[in-house]
Protein backbone atom coordinates (compact mmCIF):
# COMPACT_ATOMS: atom_id res chain seq x y z
CA UNK A 1 0.00 0.00 0.00
CA UNK A 2 1.35 3.42 -0.98
CA UNK A 3 1.39 5.96 1.83
CA UNK A 4 0.01 9.35 0.92
CA UNK A 5 0.86 11.08 4.20
CA UNK A 6 2.10 14.68 3.89
CA UNK A 7 0.69 14.93 0.36
CA UNK A 8 -1.84 17.32 -1.11
CA UNK A 9 -4.15 14.35 -1.58
CA UNK A 10 -3.97 13.58 2.13
CA UNK A 11 -4.70 17.20 3.01
CA UNK A 12 -7.66 17.03 0.65
CA UNK A 13 -8.99 13.92 2.39
CA UNK A 14 -8.68 15.54 5.80
CA UNK A 15 -10.35 18.74 4.58
CA UNK A 16 -13.16 16.69 3.05
CA UNK A 17 -13.68 14.84 6.32
CA UNK A 18 -13.88 18.11 8.25
CA UNK A 19 -16.45 19.58 5.87
CA UNK A 20 -18.49 16.38 5.94
CA UNK A 21 -18.42 16.24 9.74
CA UNK A 22 -19.56 19.86 9.90
CA UNK A 23 -22.41 19.13 7.48
CA UNK A 24 -23.45 16.09 9.52
CA UNK A 25 -23.70 18.26 12.63
CA UNK A 26 -25.64 20.87 10.68
CA UNK A 27 -28.02 18.19 9.37
CA UNK A 28 -28.63 17.02 12.94
CA UNK A 29 -29.49 20.60 13.95
CA UNK A 30 -31.87 20.95 11.03
CA UNK A 31 -33.58 17.68 11.98
CA UNK A 32 -34.24 19.08 15.44
CA UNK A 33 -35.62 22.32 13.96
CA UNK A 34 -37.99 20.35 11.73
CA UNK A 35 -39.22 18.36 14.72
CA UNK A 36 -40.03 21.67 16.42
CA UNK A 37 -42.15 22.73 13.44
CA UNK A 38 -39.66 24.68 11.34
CA UNK A 39 -40.46 25.43 7.69
CA UNK A 40 -39.31 22.39 5.64
CA UNK A 41 -38.45 24.68 2.72
CA UNK A 42 -36.37 27.28 4.54
CA UNK A 43 -33.07 26.10 3.03
CA UNK A 44 -31.45 23.35 0.97
CA UNK A 45 -30.84 20.96 3.87
CA UNK A 46 -34.38 21.14 5.23
CA UNK A 47 -35.69 20.55 1.71
CA UNK A 48 -33.50 17.47 1.33
CA UNK A 49 -34.51 16.22 4.78
CA UNK A 50 -38.18 16.62 3.87
CA UNK A 51 -37.91 14.90 0.49
CA UNK A 52 -39.61 11.50 0.27
CA UNK A 53 -39.45 8.77 -2.36
CA UNK A 54 -42.71 8.64 -4.30
CA UNK A 55 -42.72 4.83 -4.31
CA UNK A 56 -41.76 3.81 -0.78
CA UNK A 57 -41.97 7.07 1.16
CA UNK A 58 -38.39 6.79 2.41
CA UNK A 59 -36.22 9.86 2.94
CA UNK A 60 -32.65 10.50 1.87
CA UNK A 61 -29.79 9.07 3.89
CA UNK A 62 -27.38 11.34 5.70
CA UNK A 63 -24.65 10.49 3.17
CA UNK A 64 -26.94 11.35 0.25
CA UNK A 65 -27.77 14.72 1.80
CA UNK A 66 -24.11 15.51 2.47
CA UNK A 67 -23.14 14.54 -1.08
CA UNK A 68 -25.90 16.70 -2.57
CA UNK A 69 -24.96 19.75 -0.49
CA UNK A 70 -21.31 19.44 -1.52
CA UNK A 71 -22.41 18.99 -5.12
CA UNK A 72 -24.39 22.23 -5.03
CA UNK A 73 -21.49 24.07 -3.37
CA UNK A 74 -18.79 22.95 -5.76
CA UNK A 75 -20.03 21.46 -9.04
CA UNK A 76 -21.03 23.34 -12.15
CA UNK A 77 -19.80 26.79 -11.17
CA UNK A 78 -17.21 26.88 -13.95
CA UNK A 79 -19.95 26.36 -16.54
CA UNK A 80 -22.10 29.06 -14.94
CA UNK A 81 -19.11 31.41 -14.88
CA UNK A 82 -18.48 30.81 -18.59
CA UNK A 83 -22.13 31.51 -19.38
CA UNK A 84 -22.21 34.75 -17.37
CA UNK A 85 -18.87 35.87 -18.81
CA UNK A 86 -20.05 35.57 -22.39
CA UNK A 87 -23.46 37.03 -21.57
CA UNK A 88 -21.70 40.18 -20.38
CA UNK A 89 -19.45 40.23 -23.43
CA UNK A 90 -22.29 39.74 -25.92
CA UNK A 91 -24.43 42.36 -24.21
CA UNK A 92 -21.47 44.73 -24.54
CA UNK A 93 -21.55 44.52 -28.33
CA UNK A 94 -25.35 44.43 -28.72
CA UNK A 95 -26.70 47.74 -27.30
CA UNK A 96 -30.30 47.09 -28.37
CA UNK A 97 -30.34 43.69 -26.67
CA UNK A 98 -28.71 45.13 -23.55
CA UNK A 99 -31.36 47.87 -23.51
CA UNK A 100 -34.12 45.24 -23.59
CA UNK A 101 -32.49 43.33 -20.72
CA UNK A 102 -32.06 46.58 -18.78
CA UNK A 103 -35.73 47.48 -19.27
CA UNK A 104 -36.86 44.04 -18.09
CA UNK A 105 -34.65 44.08 -15.00
CA UNK A 106 -35.49 47.66 -14.06
CA UNK A 107 -39.18 46.80 -14.26
CA UNK A 108 -38.67 43.94 -11.82
CA UNK A 109 -36.55 46.06 -9.47
CA UNK A 110 -39.12 48.89 -9.40
CA UNK A 111 -41.93 46.47 -8.56
CA UNK A 112 -40.21 45.40 -5.33
CA UNK A 113 -39.75 47.18 -2.01
CA UNK A 114 -36.23 48.51 -1.48
CA UNK A 115 -33.88 45.79 -0.23
CA UNK A 116 -36.26 42.88 -0.87
CA UNK A 117 -34.59 39.80 -2.34
CA UNK A 118 -35.59 38.20 -5.62
CA UNK A 119 -38.34 35.59 -5.57
CA UNK A 120 -39.32 32.72 -7.86
CA UNK A 121 -41.99 35.00 -9.30
CA UNK A 122 -39.34 37.57 -10.19
CA UNK A 123 -37.19 34.98 -11.93
CA UNK A 124 -40.21 33.80 -13.92
CA UNK A 125 -40.59 37.36 -15.27
CA UNK A 126 -37.04 37.38 -16.69
CA UNK A 127 -38.14 35.76 -19.93
CA UNK A 128 -36.09 37.89 -22.31
CA UNK A 129 -32.98 37.73 -20.12
CA UNK A 130 -33.22 33.93 -20.16
CA UNK A 131 -33.52 33.95 -23.95
CA UNK A 132 -30.28 35.94 -24.00
CA UNK A 133 -28.72 33.26 -21.79
CA UNK A 134 -29.93 30.47 -24.10
CA UNK A 135 -28.58 32.25 -27.17
CA UNK A 136 -25.27 32.75 -25.36
CA UNK A 137 -25.13 29.04 -24.59
CA UNK A 138 -25.88 28.27 -28.22
CA UNK A 139 -23.04 30.42 -29.52
CA UNK A 140 -20.55 29.64 -26.77
CA UNK A 141 -21.41 26.31 -25.13
CA UNK A 142 -19.27 25.62 -22.03
CA UNK A 143 -19.18 21.89 -22.80
CA UNK A 144 -17.23 20.62 -25.82
CA UNK A 145 -19.35 17.55 -26.42
CA UNK A 146 -19.96 14.01 -25.23
CA UNK A 147 -20.28 10.37 -26.14
CA UNK A 148 -23.27 8.49 -27.51
CA UNK A 149 -23.61 4.80 -28.25
CA UNK A 150 -24.79 3.74 -31.71
CA UNK A 151 -27.90 1.57 -31.26
CA UNK A 152 -27.71 0.41 -34.88
CA UNK A 153 -25.34 0.55 -37.86
CA UNK A 154 -25.12 4.14 -39.14
CA UNK A 155 -23.86 5.35 -42.51
CA UNK A 156 -22.48 8.88 -42.51
CA UNK A 157 -20.75 10.46 -45.51
CA UNK A 158 -19.80 7.07 -46.86
CA UNK A 159 -18.51 5.77 -43.54
CA UNK A 160 -20.15 2.95 -41.58
CA UNK A 161 -20.38 3.34 -37.80
CA UNK A 162 -21.10 -0.15 -36.43
CA UNK A 163 -23.76 -0.76 -33.81
CA UNK A 164 -22.35 -0.55 -30.30
CA UNK A 165 -19.58 1.91 -31.15
CA UNK A 166 -19.12 5.04 -29.04
CA UNK A 167 -19.60 8.25 -31.02
CA UNK A 168 -18.22 11.58 -29.85
CA UNK A 169 -20.40 14.51 -30.86
CA UNK A 170 -19.31 18.14 -30.71
CA UNK A 171 -21.81 20.55 -29.25
CA UNK A 172 -20.58 23.61 -31.12
CA UNK A 173 -21.06 21.99 -34.54
CA UNK A 174 -24.64 21.09 -33.67
CA UNK A 175 -25.52 24.51 -32.24
CA UNK A 176 -23.93 26.34 -35.20
CA UNK A 177 -25.57 24.16 -37.86
CA UNK A 178 -27.38 26.47 -40.30
CA UNK A 179 -29.83 23.70 -41.19
CA UNK A 180 -31.12 23.92 -37.60
CA UNK A 181 -30.51 27.54 -36.64
CA UNK A 182 -30.92 30.28 -39.26
CA UNK A 183 -27.91 32.60 -39.41
CA UNK A 184 -26.14 30.73 -36.61
CA UNK A 185 -23.34 33.31 -36.32
CA UNK A 186 -25.84 36.06 -35.51
CA UNK A 187 -26.62 36.74 -31.86
CA UNK A 188 -30.40 36.60 -31.89
CA UNK A 189 -32.21 35.77 -28.61
CA UNK A 190 -35.61 35.98 -30.32
CA UNK A 191 -34.94 32.66 -32.03
CA UNK A 192 -36.03 31.17 -28.68
CA UNK A 193 -39.44 32.88 -28.79
CA UNK A 194 -40.85 29.60 -30.07
CA UNK A 195 -38.68 26.85 -28.63
CA UNK A 196 -41.11 24.19 -29.85
CA UNK A 197 -39.99 24.98 -33.40
CA UNK A 198 -36.44 23.82 -32.64
CA UNK A 199 -36.01 20.13 -33.59
CA UNK A 200 -35.78 17.77 -30.58
CA UNK A 201 -32.26 17.29 -29.17
CA UNK A 202 -30.88 20.09 -31.37
CA UNK A 203 -30.37 22.62 -28.58
CA UNK A 204 -28.38 20.48 -26.19
CA UNK A 205 -26.52 23.00 -24.03
CA UNK A 206 -27.91 21.13 -20.99
CA UNK A 207 -28.12 17.76 -22.70
CA UNK A 208 -31.47 16.07 -23.13
CA UNK A 209 -33.63 13.16 -22.13
CA UNK A 210 -33.66 11.52 -18.70
CA UNK A 211 -29.94 12.21 -18.23
CA UNK A 212 -29.97 15.91 -18.99
CA UNK A 213 -27.99 18.20 -16.71
CA UNK A 214 -29.41 17.97 -13.16
CA UNK A 215 -28.13 21.48 -12.47
CA UNK A 216 -30.20 23.14 -15.20
CA UNK A 217 -32.43 25.12 -12.85
CA UNK A 218 -29.52 25.94 -10.56
CA UNK A 219 -27.51 27.37 -13.49
CA UNK A 220 -30.58 29.33 -14.58
CA UNK A 221 -30.95 30.89 -11.13
CA UNK A 222 -27.24 31.80 -10.97
CA UNK A 223 -27.26 33.47 -14.38
CA UNK A 224 -30.50 35.41 -13.91
CA UNK A 225 -29.68 36.61 -10.39
CA UNK A 226 -26.16 37.69 -11.38
CA UNK A 227 -27.30 39.63 -14.45
CA UNK A 228 -30.12 41.25 -12.45
CA UNK A 229 -27.78 42.67 -9.82
CA UNK A 230 -25.13 43.71 -12.35
CA UNK A 231 -27.75 45.65 -14.30
CA UNK A 232 -29.36 47.00 -11.13
CA UNK A 233 -26.06 48.51 -9.98
CA UNK A 234 -25.65 50.38 -13.25
CA UNK A 235 -23.44 48.13 -15.33
CA UNK A 236 -22.10 49.97 -18.35
CA UNK A 237 -20.22 48.22 -21.12
CA UNK A 238 -18.30 49.70 -24.02
CA UNK A 239 -16.17 47.82 -26.51
CA UNK A 240 -13.42 48.45 -28.99
CA UNK A 241 -13.88 45.19 -30.85
CA UNK A 242 -16.94 43.26 -31.95
CA UNK A 243 -15.33 39.81 -31.73
CA UNK A 244 -16.27 38.09 -28.44
CA UNK A 245 -13.87 35.23 -29.23
CA UNK A 246 -10.80 37.38 -28.65
CA UNK A 247 -8.62 36.52 -25.67
CA UNK A 248 -8.63 40.15 -24.58
CA UNK A 249 -11.96 41.79 -23.93
CA UNK A 250 -11.60 45.36 -25.10
CA UNK A 251 -14.35 46.78 -23.00
CA UNK A 252 -14.86 48.79 -19.85
CA UNK A 253 -16.84 47.45 -16.95
CA UNK A 254 -18.11 50.20 -14.73
CA UNK A 255 -20.40 49.70 -11.75
CA UNK A 256 -21.82 52.55 -9.71
CA UNK A 257 -23.32 52.64 -6.26
CA UNK A 258 -26.77 53.98 -5.41
CA UNK A 259 -25.42 57.56 -5.46
CA UNK A 260 -24.11 57.04 -9.01
CA UNK A 261 -20.50 57.17 -7.84
CA UNK A 262 -18.13 54.97 -9.76
CA UNK A 263 -17.06 51.97 -7.72
CA UNK A 264 -15.02 49.81 -10.08
CA UNK A 265 -13.52 50.57 -13.48
CA UNK A 266 -11.34 48.09 -15.35
CA UNK A 267 -10.07 48.20 -18.93
CA UNK A 268 -8.77 45.39 -21.07
CA UNK A 269 -9.98 42.54 -18.90
CA UNK A 270 -9.02 39.07 -20.04
CA UNK A 271 -11.81 36.54 -20.51
CA UNK A 272 -10.21 34.24 -17.96
CA UNK A 273 -9.97 37.04 -15.41
CA UNK A 274 -13.70 37.70 -15.59
CA UNK A 275 -14.48 34.00 -15.55
CA UNK A 276 -12.27 33.43 -12.52
CA UNK A 277 -13.76 36.43 -10.77
CA UNK A 278 -17.29 35.13 -11.15
CA UNK A 279 -16.10 31.66 -10.15
CA UNK A 280 -14.60 33.17 -6.98
CA UNK A 281 -17.92 34.78 -6.08
CA UNK A 282 -19.86 31.55 -6.43
CA UNK A 283 -17.30 28.98 -5.30
CA UNK A 284 -14.74 30.41 -2.92
CA UNK A 285 -17.17 32.62 -1.01
CA UNK A 286 -19.36 29.58 -0.38
CA UNK A 287 -16.53 27.26 0.60
CA UNK A 288 -14.79 29.91 2.69
CA UNK A 289 -18.02 30.60 4.56
CA UNK A 290 -18.48 26.88 5.11
CA UNK A 291 -14.89 26.56 6.35
CA UNK A 292 -15.30 29.48 8.74
CA UNK A 293 -18.50 27.99 10.14
CA UNK A 294 -16.72 24.66 10.48
CA UNK A 295 -13.93 26.33 12.47
CA UNK A 296 -16.44 28.15 14.69
CA UNK A 297 -18.37 24.94 15.24
CA UNK A 298 -15.20 23.07 16.16
CA UNK A 299 -14.22 25.77 18.66
CA UNK A 300 -17.69 25.70 20.21
CA UNK A 301 -17.55 21.91 20.55
CA UNK A 302 -14.09 22.21 22.12
CA UNK A 303 -15.30 24.85 24.57
CA UNK A 304 -18.18 22.60 25.67
CA UNK A 305 -15.66 20.05 26.93
CA UNK A 306 -14.45 22.43 29.63
From TrEMBL:
Localization per record: Membrane
Gene Ontology biological-process entries: sterol metabolic process
Keyword Chloroplast: no
Cofactor needs: heme
PROSITE patterns with a match to the protein in the record: CYTOCHROME_P450 (PS00086)
Descriptive protein name: Cytochrome P450 716B1-like
Residue sites binding heme per the record: 213
UniProt xrefs under InterPro entries: Cyt_P450, Cyt_P450_CS, Cyt_P450_E_grp-I, Cyt_P450_sf
One Pfam assignment: p450
Major place of residence: membrane
GO cellular component assignments: membrane
Protein family per UniProt: Belongs to the cytochrome P450 family.
Domain of life: Eukaryota
Topology relative to the membrane: Single-pass membrane protein
Keywords: Heme, Iron, Membrane, Metal-binding, Monooxygenase, Oxidoreductase, Transmembrane, Transmembrane helix
MF-aspect GO terms: heme binding; iron ion binding; monooxygenase activity; oxidoreductase activity, acting on paired donors, with incorporation or reduction of molecular oxygen
Amino acid sequence: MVSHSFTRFNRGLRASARVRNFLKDLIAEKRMELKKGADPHQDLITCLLSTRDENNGEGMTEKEIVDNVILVLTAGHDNSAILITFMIRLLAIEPSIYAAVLQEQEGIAKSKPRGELLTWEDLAKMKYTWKVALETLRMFPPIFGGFRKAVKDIEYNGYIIPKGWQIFWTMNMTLMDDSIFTEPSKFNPTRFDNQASIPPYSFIAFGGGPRMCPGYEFAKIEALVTIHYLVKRGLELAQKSSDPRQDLISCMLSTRDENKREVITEKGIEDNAILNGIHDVFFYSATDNLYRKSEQHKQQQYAKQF
